[in-house]
Amino acid sequence: MPATAPPPAIYRSEAAAGAGAPRDSRDDGVAIPPGGDVGSDSIMALEGVTFAYPDGTVALRSLSLALPRGGRIAILGANGSGKSTLFLHLNGILRPAQGRLLFGGAPVRYDRRGLNELRRRVGLVFQDPDSQLFATSVRQDISFGPLNLGLSEEAVRAKVEAAIRDTQIEELADRPTHLLSYGQKKRVAIAGVLAMEPEVIVADEPTAGLDPEMTARLMGLLDRLHASGRTIVCSTHDVELALAWADYVIVLRHGELLGAGRPEDVFCDVPLLRQARLAVPIVLDTFLRLRDRGLLGTPVRPPRTAGELADVIAERLTDTSPAYSSPLGSAP
Ligand SMILES: Nc1ncnc2c1ncn2[C@@H]1O[C@H](COP(=O)(O)OP(=O)(O)OP(=O)(O)O)[C@@H](O)[C@H]1O
Ligand SMILES: [Mg+2]
Fold it and tell me: Model pTM?
């Protein structure tokens, strides 16, 4: 599996997107059309998946989407939009009432063998770590998955210790799980998933409730896992984080696909964000306001981090080319 995948094509109209040129959807208000082909190698896909809970709540409605292989994929949507329900489908805990789930292009089979295979390849980190952890000690909990693979004791120990090292939880390894803090439980839950060495890691709001340092450490871990060739799928309400981290963003609303594409395209689509009840990331909001006032001159690529925004502004402040006359006056 390649360490990095080419940036997935976005499935919005190229004309609307200005054939790759930066665009401001405030100008044309074109939303990303739901559905369609991502036009890239997908590791998993949903085709027309509909799912209702036993009480009749319809959580997914004819949902079709593809997860680019080797991608860093962020799933966004308001509370109740279907993110967790989607994730529970991705490793076969829930089964579509209609439609189908594909892994590597082949439909998932829901017999015992098919499900075991899917769960070995797709590791799910639950939104609530208490739903995931059940053994009394941290090490026991992390060992549970590898033990069930029927490996030798030595092989299990090697996987468990590697997962403990990777998640930097050495100091927690011998503690009872129920005494850990929320953030510590989250890392243990991730270690349990890592010990299974899945190809796809699906993490439901992995940074919710974490302090900034823990968030940075966790995203660093997900980046290392991504660099080792894995596909990482995270749901989040943090639009700044999704903009900076993801290379592909999927937006859900009422169990339907509202849009998908490169983060800088999706997050510049202000009407789409409004429909999804998502905030415009501050970095892009500032960028779009400066651009709307004509302060940025010729089109530039939307920034994804505060640092990139600072670079865009600094470049304009120091731009002395005759073609560009800065409304802020010339730089010293
Ligand atoms: N066990 C359940 N039984 C009945 N309805 C459920 C159940 N779990 C979720 N739902 C409903 O399914 C819909 C989708 O919920 P889901 O938990 O997938 O949303 P979400 O996007 O993960 O939300 P959040 O951001 O709050 O985590 C909601 O209307 C929710 O009330
Ligand atoms: Mg959820």
Answer: 0.84
